[in-house]
Amino acid sequence: MELIRDKLELLRVLLNEQCSNLEPWQIVSRTAAITLIASYVYSQATHKYLDVGEFHWSEGTQSGTVYNCNDDLTQLMTEVYGMAAWTNPLHPDSFPGLRQMEAEVVRIACRLFQGGPDSCGTVTSGGTESIVLACKAYRDYARNIKGIENPVMVVPVTAHAAFDKAADLLDITIKHVPVDPITQRVDIKAMRRAISGRTCLLVGSSPQFPHGSIDDITAIGKLGLDYDIPVHVDACLGGFLVVFMKQAGFNIRPFDFSVPGVCSISADTHKYGYAPKGSSVILYSKPVFRHYQWFTCPDWPGGVYATATIGGSRAGGIIAACWAALMYHGMDGYVECTKKVITTTRYIAEEIRKIKGIKVMGVPEVSVVAIGSDDFNIYALSDAMKKRGWNLNALQFPACLHLCCTMLHTKEGVANRFIQDVKELTGEILANPEEHKGGSAAIYGMAQSLPDRNLVNEITWIYLDSLYAIKKK
Predict the structure, then answer these.
(1) CATH topology of domain 74-325
(2) Which of 117, 167, 208, 435 has the most Cβ atoms closer than 10 angstroms to its Cβ?
(3) What is the DSSP letter of 300?
(4) Which residues, other chains included, contact 277 with Cβ-Cβ below 8 Å and sequence gap of 6+?
């Protein structure tokens, strides 16, 4: 990068020296030339950075991560973001069209999730923010409406870690309840036993991240009604698949606002909504819940301050691109994509079940196929697959790994290549188990067995520190 800057600076010096005897219009031309050359040089530098890495996601070797790579969609997203790059929904008076776009994204999402006329919501920066905002809303609702000073939320152990993050940030007690060891769906009886007079929120997933199973949302909704506790459905991962599954010809467990007791839903538009990264929605069945999501500061010397989400300023370009993605696909486009993703997922799950030595964990109802083994350390398979270019998600408690299927996995040959690699490598591991005890197999085995979880935290801190390190020349 320094070499590029040096060459660019030398070019400026040379051109400036040659500009001393030029007419004004000639100087403008040379300035334009510098700008064009600078643009080219920095674009090459950008490519150099972005091309670094051993995994080639465009070939469908990643679990999740990138959910669509349609070239036309990529061009559309780039153009729309560029048009709205400087907009900010914090200033709706300056950008009224952007405000309209966000409102329409929310309205579309509410209708897809069977929300009634009172349903409402906001666009957020991602699933974590959607979940944190829902927890904040129910914490404040419990304090102000029910007089609960120290609220508790009850969540399945398989619920997204964003609920733990929300509990940490918002000073809410979190109580985890177990799941069925076969289906990996939350144990409803255990959830009932976990409810107390301080419970402010019950959570279910549709589907949950680790194994792709959908919790019994109907039963959780009934608990919410029986005990007058709001129920949140986390559909961040597969929300924009499950809403189209019936139209695509697949059976689906009840999960949306049509289920009595469901008060809110989080769903990521930047996953199967195929919007750019940094967009999600949090939806509520009625405005009173959303009111407790808002932050207002009426006595600030800078004026009355009010924000809809955690951030003040937000990237208007992301909202505009999210709106454009919805318009681009329409109902038919999303149904067709859903049909491809679900069909591919179920085909992979069916073929994996035929392979000796491994098993499918949970119920792959949407887009996730989780793989475990009773015969060897499953992380050895993750390491072996990595050598063939696959990057899978490693899970724990119980030990397994998963592939989250996207539109990239629906491309011709990708699913069969994955199945064949799993089959071949599983056979090799079963034949020579001693050769596959190092790497992730050793690290994850150690991490799960450590009784002091703070030690795992400290190891994780070192990993996060390393992400901000710059290699010295």
Answers:
(1) Aspartate Aminotransferase; domain 2 (3.40.640)
(2) 208
(3) -
(4) 126, 270
